[in-house]
Amino acid sequence: MKNRKLNKLITFSIFFLTAYCNDTLDFAKSFIENYDIASKYTHEYHPFVLEKTKNSFKQLRDSLTNSGFSLDNDIVILGYQEDAIPAYTTNWSENKIDDEAAIVTEQGKEQSDKNIFGFLTGFILKDAQWLEQKWNNKGQKFNHILGRNRDFFDDSSVVFQKHALPNDYTKIINIRDRIEKEIYKQDYKNVLSELIELWQTFYNSQLRNIAGKALASQDILFSISYGQTLLDCVSGVNKFFVGPDITYPIETLNIQKEDATVNAQKFIQTLQTNLKPIDNESTAYIFSSFVDGVGKSTLLNNVINWSKYKTDFAKYIRCDNSSSQDSQIYEFDKDVFIVDLPAQISHFAFKPDGSVYNDIESLKDCDQNFKTKLKNFIKQNKKQLEENFENLKIKLINESKTIYSETSPELNFALQTLNLANSQPWIPFEFENKHYIFDKNNYNNIKILVPLSNAHSTGLKEARPEQMLFINGISLPQNYQDFVNNLIDKLKQKNVKKIVFVNFLSMYPRTSRENVRVNFILQYARQIFKDKFKINNSFYKHTVFREQEIYQLLKDGKEDLLNSFIAETAIRMALYELMGNHSNNQLTSLSSINLEQQLKNHAFSILQNYENELQKIALNKLLIDREKMHDQFYLDRIYHNVLKINFDEIIKLSDAITIIFQSINNEYYSNLWQSLNGQLTESNYKKGTVTRLDNGQEIIIVDTISEKSKDADQLTPFISRLRAQLYSSLSALLWMIQEKNNIKDLVGTAPIAVKKTSSGQICLVQKVLPKLSERKFNKNYFLKFCVDTSNKKCWSEFNNIAHCTDFSNIGTYFGLYAYGYIPIPNVNNPISMLINNVVDEYNKETKSNFILPTSVLLEKIQSKNLFKTIEQNYSKKNIVIRNDDEKCKIIQLFIKTICTLDMILKDVNSTIAIQKNDLKDFQTSLILFEKITLPYFFNITISGNLFNDYSQILPIIS
C-alpha cells in the first residue's frame, strides 16, 4: 500500500515537473521565435505571455461577474504621442513634451522610436467626434481632444500624408472609411474590430515611412491582443477618448512648462465629468491595461491631483510611476471609486526596485541657488572627483564582487560602469548627503540619485543601464487567483455594486517600465554570463541607425551575437522559473544578493540541460531574420553611404592622391602638393585652427569628426567638402591635356588631405597658401565646384594662380557626381532627363531608400539603348581624343581615381552609388564616367574605348 502511494507520488511529481519544464521551454521557444531584433523594448510581448495576459483578463472579468458585481459598458482610452510625425510647420515658442530616452555617443545620437502607429490611429479617428455629432445627437461615444498637431490631420495636407506614407496611404484611408461607416451605424464593437484590423495591417505589412524606417514594432501586438480580448468579453463601449498625450502627468518643472501638458489638462477636466455613479449605485472605475507605460498610473495621479487642486495645475505633484503589483482603491467622490490595477502583464513579469540618476532639473524643489552651489563644488573639485572615480574602478577590477555592494552608490555605479560601459563620461560623487553624477565633458549636466518610485519619466526612460542601481532586488507577483480574490474583497468592503473598466489602449513609445526591465536584464546577464554576454555584440548595442546596424551585426555572423542571445534567453527563462517557484498568496521580494545567486543557479541549470536545443532555435531565428533584413537593407542608402564608411580607407586614398600629385610630371602640381604627406603633431585640432604637420608644413583644420561617427548630419558637411575638393583638384588634371590652355588662365584648388589624430579624431586639413592679391581672375568651367566665387575669403594663390579654398555646403550626390542625375522633376537638359527616368523606374521597382548600383544603371542604359541618345547630346565643341593618344594616360588616371573615391566615400544622400568592394560596380562606373560625365561635363570625347579591358582595371588602392 505504501509502495502504491509512493509510486503515485513519484508519478505525480514527475508529471508536475515535466509540465513545469515544458512550460518553461514553451516560454523560451515563444521568446526566441518572436524576438523583435529591431526594438529593445518589445521583448516581453511574445505570444506565450500575451496569451497568459489575455486569459488573466478574462478570468478577472468572469470572477467579478460570478461574485455578483454588475459590469457596465467599458471606456476605451486611445492616447497617442503628439509628435510621432513631426508637424509640417514649427512653432518655436510652443512648449512640447520631450522625455524620450536619448544617448549621445561618438557614433551620434541614439533616440528611441516614436510610436507612429498610435499617431496614425489618432489620424484615422480625427473626424470621429465631428461625424458622430452630425449623425447622432444623443449618446455620443467619441471625444477626440485634437491637441496642437494639426498639420498632418488637416484635410488640405494630403500631399504631406502621402509623402509620409507612400506605400500604405490608400490602405489606411480605406480602413478609415470603413470605421466611419460603423460610427454611422452606431456599431461601436465593430469600430473596435476595424481598429484591430488596422493595427494588424500596420504590423503584417511591416509599415514603413518614406525613409524606410519601421513604423510598427512588436509592441503593436499588445494593442491587437488587448483589443481582441475586449471584443470577446465586453458587452459594449460607453466612451472612446482619443487624443495626443492626454494621459501624460501634469507637473510643472524647469524642464517641463505647464502648457506642455495642456492636452492632459483638457482631458482630466473632461474625464472627471464621466466618473459618476451608475444607476445611483456605488460604482468602481477599474483603470486597466495590458502593459506598463500606457499612462494608466499617470492619469490616475492626474485624477487624484484634480480632486485636490482642480485647475490649479501648478500645484500638481508627482505620482509613483514605478508600476504597482497590487490593486489599490481610491475614493474619488461619493459612491465613486477608482481602482488602480497593475498592468495585466505585470502578473507574469518581475519588478526591479532601486534608484536611478535623474536630471536635477526634474526636481521641483531644486532652486537656482542650490544648483549654483552644486556646480561650483564640481568646478572646484572636478579633477579630484575624476581621480577618485578612476581609483575606485582600479580597486574594483581585481576584487571578487557581487552585482551590488551595500556600502555606497558611488561604488555600485563604479561596478556597473565596469560591467556595462566601455567608456562613459559620467563621474559619481556625494554632496551634502545626497548622491550625484556629472558629465565630465560638461559639468553643467548633473543628475541626482532618486528612487525609481519618485523618478520623472526621463529617469524611467534612462537608456544607460549603468545609471540604474537595482540595489533593492526585485519583487515577484503573487498567485493570480489570490490577487483577484483580494481585489474582490476590497470592492465588497467598499460596498461596490457596479463596475466600469477603463481600458488603456494608449499608444506611446514603450520605453518606461520596459526600459527599466531591459536595464535590469543587461546588468544581470553581464554579471552572470561574463564570457557569453557582450553588449556590443548583442541586440542591445547602442546604435544610431537601429535596423541597418543590426543587419550589419547579423551579416557579420559573429558567434558572440548568438552567445549573447542565448544568455539573455537563459536569464529570462530563469526569471520565469523564479516567478513560478515563488507564486503564492502574497508578493515576494528577493534582495540583490539572493537574487543573483538564485538567478545564476537557474540560468546555469537551464544551459546545462537545454543549451543545444536553445542554440538550434536561436540560430534558426537569426538566419530567418538575416534573410528578411537582407531583403530590406542590402541596398539601403544609409547602410551603404553611412555605415560602411571606413576612415582608414579614406586616409589611405587621401595619401594615394597626394602621392599622385607629388609624382606627376608637372612642376606646378608637384610643388603645390609638396609636404602634404606629413603627419599631425599633438596640438589643438579644433575646426579653424592653423597648425603644422610634423614636417613643418602649415595647414588649417577645416573640419573634424570622430572616426566612430555614424551621424549623418555630422558626416554630410565633412564628406561633401572632401569629395568636392578632391573632385576639383583631380579635374584640374584635365587642364594639362588641352593644348590651347595657358597656365595663367588656370583656376586651381587648395590641396586637401585626411589625417588621423592619436585620440581617434579624423581631421580634414588644407594646405595654407598665401592670400589672393587684389588682381582679378577669369572664371572658367572648373569653378563649377565652387560655392561663392565672389567671396575673397575663399581664395588664395600659388604660383600666381588663384586657388579656391572653400568647398563647404556643397551637395555631391547629383550632377557630375552622379552621371548627370538630378533629383528634381522637370529637368530641362536631355541627359539628366534620361538618367532621372532610369532612377525613377528603378525606385518603383524596388524601394525609394535603395541606392542604384552603377552596374544596374549601366545594364538599364544598355537595355534601353540610351547611349546613342546620350551621344547625340554631346556638345559640338567637345575635344575628341583618340584612345591611343598619350593624353589618355592622364584621363585614365583621372577616371580611375575619381571612381575609387566614389566607391570608398559616397555622399550621405547619394542615390547612384558604387558598392564598396564590388569590382563589377567599379568597372561599370569607369564606362559611365567615360561615356557620360567626361563628355557632358568636361567636353572631352574619347574616340574608341578608353580602356582595352575594363574587367582588368582595379581601384587605385586595394
In short:
The chain has 958 residues and is α/β, with parallel strands linked by helices.
Structural key phrases:
958 residues; alpha/beta; eight-stranded mixed beta sheet; five-stranded antiparallel beta sheet; globular
Give the proportion of residues in helices.
40-55%
The coarse silhouette is globular
Distance between the termini: 83 Å
Largest β sheet strand count, sense and barrel closure: 8 strands, mixed
Structural class: alpha/beta
Q: What is the percentage of strand-forming residues?
A: 5-15%
Question: What is the number of strand segments?
Answer: 29
Radius of gyration of CA atoms, rounded to a whole number: 33 Å
Low-confidence stretches: 8-20
Q: Give the rounded overall mean pLDDT.
A: 88
| Number of contiguous helices | 27
